[in-house]
Amino acid sequence: MRLVVSHPSRTNKDAARVGHPLLYAWELFAGMKYLTEFRNGEIAQRMAREIHALATRPWKIMEVCGGQTHSIIKNGIDQMLPAGIEMIHGPGCPVCVTPLELIDKALAIAAQPGVIFCSFGDMLRVPGTEGDLFQVKGAGGDVRVVYSPLDAVELAVKNPEKQVVFFGVGFETTAPANAMSVHLAKRRGLKNYSLLVSHVLVPPAIEAIMGSPGNKVQGFLLAGHVCSVMGYWEYPPLAAKYGVPLVVTGFEPLDLLDGIRRAVAQLEAGRHEVENAYERIVTFEGNRPAQKLLSEVFEVTDRAWRGIGVIPNSGWRLSAAYRDFDAEERFQITGIHTQESPLCRAGDVLRGAIKPAECAAFGKECTPRHPLGATMVSSEGACAAYYNYGRFLSAEELATAGSGLTRAANA
Amino acid sequence: MGRVNFGGVVKKVCLDYVPDVEVGDYTIVHVGFALSKIDEETALKTLEDFRAMGALDEELGSEEEAFARAAVAPQSACPDGSCSVEVHKTVN
After folding, report:
1. Residue-range domain boundaries for chain A
2. Is B16:A183 a contact under the CB 8 Å cutoff?
3. Which candidate among A46, A216, A249, A376 keeps its CA 20 to 30 Å from the CA of A109?
């Protein structure tokens, strides 16, 4: 998922202002300002020192969202923390947890003649039992990458003779966009648009992790952008039930360090509350207009999470009023026999049981170019983060590499 | 639909979920939808709090001052000690 700080301007409100070059320059400056100021290295160092001063014991904290995993690994946040503070990477990568059966269904639908199959880009290389969407495209299937589900609705309007299917995968952040697409399709009376839905929800995933035997997670960083939609009113009962601190956290280095700092402070003090460390974006109640449409278009259902299993009430499907737009209903795909790669340990990675580099296939049989599991594909997958940011050397290898450099310098 | 400037690239974005957004506001955009207005006052307040954090130990100055301080006393351990002042002296 890609989220950008930016500036909205309605053309019909104040056209002259929008085109004003001085305003534009200010916008550009300020737009960058809001990102770069939350990346200040000096403040980050001091926050890390504050965490070092706070921590007296080892703690295990899970960041739920894959976007946060990537930011932590990219910026080396985990390496700034005291040795005892371990970040466990959560299952918050929608592409990664989409069940294999649904991927296989997507491949089958995309291969049908007369279908335009639309998806976000990171789904195209996700391996199904036999092949991926790229291969379907290579074999002549009409598979298209779109920026927004609204682009898929436009395709349906322009191609009335084709069936346009959008692969609606995601957490609560992406759901408002997908909900709006079917809402629009219904309002426009489109008979050739449907949604292949695999929507999952964060609070039931946290329940499943906290309730699982052998759970080691003691605190959570809640996904800031999920909370921008849903607010955080769902979480206080979870904090109370499991005695676990939950901190709404953003994505820039300072946001992440502040979230970790607050979680450690709570753990050290024996508190377990819901805190908001992303106040500039997230409110307690969240985005009400979005929640209203979501409750109209979707209803809660059990969902299977790839690598984890079925979690009760952990997802959304289209509600009765919108069931006509469900691609699974429209294309009755049967005879799917799924088979996971025997080498892939994506399930253990998604549960936080192992770090990506502990998998024997990591960086060998499994790379972003030839992924065995979805966690190596997605821009939110933990394996892809470890691979892309060079976290595949062992401690010994790193030490050897270091001494080699020293030798070279001395010579 | 509205127009959003992504640091120079202007895109059409659905603003239905942020009905009170005004020209000049900042927003979070995900897959073509504005989801949340950025509260600029809170953003500035947060940054102020961050800057104040640990400021009793050391006065935070400009980037140049930070680099100057780091040159004298590196803030993180250097693996082979080659960045410390002493090593430079022996090399010379």
Report:
1. 42-340, 346-392
2. no
3. A376
CATH match of A42-340 with 3.40.50.300: no
Per-residue pLDDT tens for A43-69?
Answer: 999 999 999 999 999 999 999 999 999
Q: Which chain B residues are Cβ-neighbours of A225 within 8 angstroms?
A: 28, 30, 35
> Does residue A26 surpass a pLDDT of 70?
no
Nearest residue in B to A37, CA atom: B47
If contacts are CB pairs under 8 Å, which of residues 256-295 in chain A contact chain B? 258, 279-282, 287, 289-290
**In chain B, which residues have their Cβ closer than 8 Å to the Cβ of A151?**
32
| Complex prediction ipTM | 0.82
Give the separation between CA B48 and CA A18, rounded to whole angstroms: 30
pLDDT digits (tens, 9 = 90+) for B5-64: 887 888 899 999 999 999 988 899 999 999 999 998 999 999 999 888 765 455 445 566
Sign of CA dihedral A318, A323, A327, A333: positive
